[in-house]
Design a protein that fits this description.
It contains eleven helices and ten strands. It has about 260 residues and is an alpha/beta fold. Strands 4-3-1-2-9-10 form a six-stranded parallel sheet, sandwiched between helices.
């Protein structure tokens, strides 16, 4: 059995956990949600690198053999640093999201919604320009989403109103593909899909990230492994609040225990 460490600022990275549970049930997951310091989207590049570093170091110390930075904000600015510092596979969610959008688009007009830090980094734009210079990317920061999702609110009238406001400029640009550039956002997929309409394909980077993970662990797992993984969930803030919200979301697993450890 292989152990994969997954981290995010809060519950968002559970959208990656959901895909791992569906596609790689043999994998043991250690999840860290930095709920005491959420949201990450408004933090500086230096602070995001620091937080990604200390959480990665902690997960490796707990036995993780592969790390998934399931936060777009830290993936955008800290992934290169982490990959150079540590000698284990460290995966982000930016590249998978862009590659998924390239596969999905029909007209080459792609939208990206994310936190302010992710959009400001310009990393999606740079990657798309390198891979498909003729394609166009239209970005929209959505700072209001994460606080709602961290409370488990993914269907309220306030979310619909906010999503309409955020998506309108992108839809007016005739996008046909939308990257959900924050791992919190797949939990809003029903709302985003209704507002975007059937002509816009929503790209969940967690799907492509898990496909990449499957390639990495293919020779390390066995379909005959009868040992059932016992996943760990750890947060830096209130474990009961995290458990309640996580269990209200369609993750594919019900959390029975959540540990509280503030990594410094």
């Amino acid at each position: 059995m292989i152990t994969v460490g997954v981290f995010d600022s809060g519950v968002g990275g559970l959208s990656v956990v959901r895909q791992i549970l569906r596609n790689l049930p043999e994998v043991h997951i250690i999840y860290y949600g930095d709920t005491a310091r959420v949201p990450y989207g408004e933090k500086s590049k230096e602070e995001l690198i620091y937080l990604a570093d200390i959480v990665t170091n902690y997960l490796l110390g707990e036995g993780a053999e592969i790390i998934i930075d399931a936060c777009n904000s830290t993936s955008a600015v800290a992934l290169d640093f982490l990959q150079k510092k540590y000698r284990v596979p460290i995966m982000g969610v930016i590249n998978p999201g862009v590659k998924g959008a390239i596969k999905a688009t029909r007209n080459g007009r792609i939208g990206i919604i994310g936190t302010e830090a992710t959009v400001k980094s310009g990393v999606h734009r740079s990657l798309l320009a390198a891979l498909k210079p003729d394609f166009k990317l239209f970005s929209q920061a959505c700072p209001g989403f994460v606080p709602f999702i961290e409370k488990g609110d993914v269907l309220s009238s306030e979310i619909y109103k906010l999503a309409t406001e955020y998506l309108d400029p992108l839809l007016r640009e005739n996008i046909d593909t939308l990257i959900l550039g924050c791992t919190h956002y797949p939990f809003l997929e029903p709302v985003l899909a209704e507002i975007s309409g059937t002509n816009v394909k929503l790209v969940d980077p967690a799907v492509e990230t898990t496909a990449d993970l499957k390639k990495v662990v293919a020779d390390k797992i066995s379909g005959n492994n009868l040992t059932k993984p016992e996943h760990r969930f750890i947060v830096s803030g209130d474990p009961d609040s995290f458990k309640q919200v996580a269990n209200s979301l369609p993750v594919g697993i019900k959390l029975k225990q959540v540990e509280s450890i503030l990594v410094k």
